[in-house]
Amino acid sequence: MGQKMKEKVSSFLFEYDTPRMVLVRDKKVGLTFRMIQLGVLAYIIGWVFVYEKGYQTVDGIISSVSVKIKGLAVTDLPSIGTEIWDAVDYVFPPQGDSSFVVMTNFITTADQKMGYCNELPDVAPCKTNDDCTITAFRQSQGVMTGNCTPYDNKTKTCQIYAWCPVENDFNVPKPPLLSQAENFTLFIKNSISFPRHGVTRQNLVESVTSNYLKKCVYHKENDPLCPVFRLGYIVEQSGRNFSELAYKGGTISIVIDWQCDLDWPVRYCKPTYEFHGLQDENKVSQGFNFRHARYYKEDGVSKRTLFKVFGIRFDILVNGQGGKFDIIPTMTTIGSGIGIFGVDSQEKEEVYSQNGQQLNSSSSENVYDTQLNTYKSC
């Protein structure tokens, strides 16, 4: 028992094995082997190092966005008269951040005041008072009083207590009332930071000066760094038609992408812009809309003008990453490459001798034992 333990300990401490090197003189095998090595080398250098930049540490971005919109539109409607619309009137919210709406169409219901009036025939038709339950329900614009009263000479509807007259939004103006919005301009100011690398950057790059900013308008090919965008061009680049989108509203995303190699001077870190239409063609609940009101008093009575607003919602998304040289991923990548070469260099189960004869595993063991015994006897 003690002798066996001693042999095991001795074997563990004083014996080791090494891979056996075999010289193969075969043109096909040699050429195949070198081609595999060349492919592995091309993968490590071309893909891992050059394309994927495996020698860099990558950092995500922290971002802030602010916007300003400029442009004027004029409407002349019987309900509200002639009006001039500027950014204060058609941008929601007025401060303008990474998500905002530009009004392109609307329905007005003027001079509403609290009182009793009839609901619309499509919402609450009736024949007797029994058809009008004293309650509020989902489609109604007010609270039912329980009375069925004439809406016109032919129709009766339930009476409600609400802001009267009630809104009738079945006829959306076409063409859009603010079709001039196509030529409004959007100024985007984007500030980013790569905190791990201590780098900050703005989309107002070195080539963007005050004089340049007053005149430039973004174009994908001719002026890709200008931060001033025409709304019509944004919609066009998203693959949508502005007039169709402005009719009932929709959603557009503006993607600012920063892909920066911070081993180069920071002036080469520049943004690119992409535009995507996010509205599908579903006929149910088309477009984008909401309501807001202008409140006022007339002869001591509170009144309002109700607007059902159709608009284009813009969502600004900022993506990106910055890579910079780091010794740790560099050594890790080199080690992985060496490991791949090691796997590539492993002998197959069948080894070709100089004479083209195959040596099976048992004959390989015999060669190894013979060489080992020769080594021990020296």
TrEMBL record:
One GO location term (cellular component): plasma membrane
**Gene giving rise to this polypeptide:** p2rx1
Per the record, the GO terms for biological process are: response to ATP
What are the record keywords, sorted?
Answer: ATP-binding, Cell membrane, Disulfide bond, Glycoprotein, Ion channel, Ion transport, Ligand-gated ion channel, Membrane, Nucleotide-binding, Receptor, Transmembrane, Transmembrane helix, Transport
Protein name from the UniProt record? P2X purinoceptor
Bilayer disposition of the protein: Multi-pass membrane protein
Please tell me where this protein is predominantly located.
membrane
Residues listed as glycosylation sites in the UniProt record: N183
